[in-house]
């Protein structure tokens, strides 16, 4: 062939004119992005690990896994930075004490946990709830084992373990117990497995964790799909049933929680003391402030049951309001509907008012996954379409 002869196009060198090109095989999607998004939220419910280290210990690895994320994740990071600035302003302008740095660091870790949690929720809320349900069932089995064999849990962290006068443990509440409230029954296709899951989670919430808050949230979350999808008369009937259930819970709660009167009395005393001190100082006393005769935790004396009122005393009304508004923005960032975002934030703040959960990643994640109605996965012929 002469050097200057025209060459055929590269794509025609090895194909005859009548050859057909086979379609490319479909490429399986990578699991790595999902793993990156789900790892940190799941670790907030890994109870065996949480007996040894705080869930906040996983915040930095969680952020490194997510990396640069997406636009909404980076916007959440900006909200976290704003929250961090508020916290630092309080630290540098208010009174110092021996616990201020520890309190501030715990707050900062929670602040940067929220973007990573939101990223996992937005990635696939149904998958996240399914995986958390598996973790919850494991935690239920572990807690039953601890109770049946009376395992000595002294020295482990993150536990609220109460013994009766006979020395028998009758309550075990660990820091991620609230995630039992968002258990997804449709994790399993078989009806008997769904019923078994419901029975196991209910048994744990009512007879092991014995938390009125988690009982109420579990009932609300189980009813939410029916309320949101049903016609008006069903919604009214469900609302009436919910009110009736709340009345029964109020009546029989002392049977489930014999210590409830003592707990409520302690919270009432805490609130009265805080309100009396707020009258003299509305500028905030600083991170780590504590009242000796109200403290029950030697390691974290600044954290009491009435956490939100105490936070107002520590940070001042202005800083506390700014923090709550920015956390509200975090909830709205991962909400499929604004109204549900407001409802989740209201649950977060109202229950955090008299429980020491406000800066706990698992509590934020619990509220962020409440009141969700994800579509059921396709089955049968739909899978082939």
From TrEMBL:
Species lineage: Bacteria, Pseudomonadati, Pseudomonadota, Alphaproteobacteria, Sphingomonadales
Residue stretches spanning the membrane: 48-66, 78-96, 102-119, 131-148, 195-228, 234-253, 311-333, 345-365
Name recorded for this polypeptide: Uncharacterized protein
Keyword list, A-Z: Membrane, Transmembrane, Transmembrane helix
């Amino acid at each position: 062939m002469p050097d200057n002869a025209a060459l055929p196009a590269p794509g025609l060198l090895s194909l005859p004119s009548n050859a057909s090109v086979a379609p490319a095989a479909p490429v399986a999607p990578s699991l790595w992005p999902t793993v990156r998004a789900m790892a940190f939220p799941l670790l907030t419910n890994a109870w065996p690990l949480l007996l040894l280290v705080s869930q906040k210990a996983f915040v930095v690895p969680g952020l490194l896994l997510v990396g640069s994320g997406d636009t909404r994740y980076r916007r959440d990071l900006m909200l976290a930075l704003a929250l961090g600035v508020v916290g630092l302003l309080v630290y540098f302008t208010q009174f110092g004490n021996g616990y201020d740095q520890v309190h501030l660091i715990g707050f900062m870790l929670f602040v940067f946990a929220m973007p990573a949690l939101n990223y996992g929720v937005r990635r696939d809320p149904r998958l996240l709830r399914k995986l958390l349900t598996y973790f919850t069932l494991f935690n239920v089995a572990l807690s039953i084992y601890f109770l049946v064999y009376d395992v000595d849990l002294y020295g482990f962290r993150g536990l609220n373990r109460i013994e009766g006068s006979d020395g028998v443990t009758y309550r075990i509440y660990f820091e991620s117990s609230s995630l039992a409230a968002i258990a997804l029954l449709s994790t399993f296709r078989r009806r008997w497995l769904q019923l078994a899951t419901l029975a196991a989670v209910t048994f744990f919430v009512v007879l092991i964790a014995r938390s009125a808050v988690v009982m109420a949230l579990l009932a609300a979350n189980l009813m939410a799909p029916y309320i949101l999808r049903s016609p008006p008369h069903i919604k009214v009937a469900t609302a009436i049933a919910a009110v009736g259930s709340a009345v029964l819970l109020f009546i029989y709660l002392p049977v489930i929680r014999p210590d409830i009167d003592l707990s409520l009395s302690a919270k009432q005393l805490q609130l009265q003391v805080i309100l009396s001190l707020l009258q003299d100082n509305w500028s905030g006393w600083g991170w780590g402030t504590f009242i000796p005769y109200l403290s029950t935790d030697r390691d974290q004396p600044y954290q009491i049951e009435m956490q939100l009122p105490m936070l107002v005393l520590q940070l001042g009304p202005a800083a506390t309001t700014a923090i709550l508004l920015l956390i509200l923005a975090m909830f709205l960032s991962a909400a499929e509907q604004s109204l549900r975002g407001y409802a989740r934030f209201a649950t977060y703040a109202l229950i955090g008012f008299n429980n020491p959960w406000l800066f706990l990643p698992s509590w934020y994640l619990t509220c962020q996954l409440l009141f969700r109605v994800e579509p059921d996965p396709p089955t049968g012929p739909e899978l082939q379409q």
